Amino acid sequence: MSRESIINILVVSFPAQGHLNPMVQFCTHLATKGVKVTLVLTERASKSLQTPAGTASLIEVELIPDVLPEGVAEVPYNMETVIAHLRASFSVGLPEVIEKRKAAGRTPKVVLYDSVVPWILELAKGSGLEGAALFTQPCCVSAFYYHVFKGDAGIPPENLATAVVSLPGMPPMGANDLPSFSYFKDDSQVVQSLVANQFVNIEQVDWIFFNTFDKLEEEILRWMRSKWAVKTIGPLIPSMYLKDSNEEDHRISLFKPLSQACMDWLSTRQPNSVVYVSFGSLACVTQEQMAEFATALAESNHSFLWVVRESEETKLPKDFKSKTSEKGLIVKWCPQLQVLSHGTIACFMTHCGWNSTLEALMLGVPMIAVPQWGDQQMNAKYVVDVWETGVRPKGNQKGIVTKEEIKGCIREVMEEEKGERLKRNALKWKGLAEEALLEGGSSHSTIEHFISHLSSI
Known about the structure:
Blueprint: E1 8-12, H1 17-31, E2 36-42, H2 43-46, H3 53-58, E3 59-64, H4 79-103, E4 110-114, H5 120-126, E5 130-135, H6 139-150, H7 188-196, E6 207-210, H8 218-225, E7 230-232, H9 259-266, E8 274-278, H10 287-299, E9 303-307, H11 320-323, E10 328-331, H12 336-340, E11 345-350, H13 354-363, E12 367-369, H14 376-386, E13 390-391, H15 403-415, H16 417-437, H17 442-456
């Protein structure tokens, strides 16, 4: 087989864990079917990644130099400058990579990119390549962002607290169900523009992929497909967590997971007895909220495994770890899929980031939804009211979820009949997710069709 007959693609992800993992998993699906995948990263972004050895053998990584925007001496942790830095770096680096590949007889067929960096499409088209966008958030959330982009989201600025928003293909939603960016404070407008501008050139995109599956979001998919050729390829989770699959876990982590410690501790617990708690790689809760979580877990009747990132540890109540060592384990990071698939896990208290939500659905684990920002509110709405696989504690007037609310939700899921119903629903979605990914399923067929198309161009 000549070099030119091999399918080569280039991949650009937004450098955050919630974006990297679904992108890498999609690339893994492609690579195991013979596609030569090259992930293009800036040198800065590559430094903190914890990459499994198997990933390196499947996916090549090409680093490009960091280019600072004009007038900027260094890249601070400021969203606007980070985005400008990415755009400056890839505007120079990506065309150079493409030309280098062409000269070496390894011409890429397509640039697969994260939808939040839509300007990558211009660079791909400028080099004569197709562009494929991967949306790493659900269709319902992305549809809402599209309405924000078009200016017709129907959010009344006055009396928002009591307003009900109705949009095509979606259930009625109140203020607590809509994406919020106030968490980002000074960056809130920048982040809102980032997600809304995913649609700035969608009419020119050759492929539009979503990390979801057809039966999970039927109504909103019907509406979206009336406008664009949307393809579902999810849930983008390692196939090793499906029946009869030996595929390895190729997820990338920005933190080092304490895998053995978690698995050893879980092996000492009874089946369906543990509350798993994690709020993802970015969420930061207040000290007051942390105290409510801690007290609820200490006073509940159940064991708990709680992921508290190093940056959050100082917010824990004094002596909490030592006082709860008999019933709980606190770790800085953990292998989430391994944990969720462990037979001792009975429920997942989660921020409802899309990856965590999909993982819980995929593995049949009921959720306690405690959303923090962005898409998480709407994900929580769907978890509770549409997919009926979880409960959501109410916040008080200060927005704090109290220990009483949390303990009540733990009881509901772990001890009451409602918990049995949530578990049955979760297992139903697990089955439908597996169906989508196995041979002949909607997501599996889309990936096969994409590869077939790449072979023909």
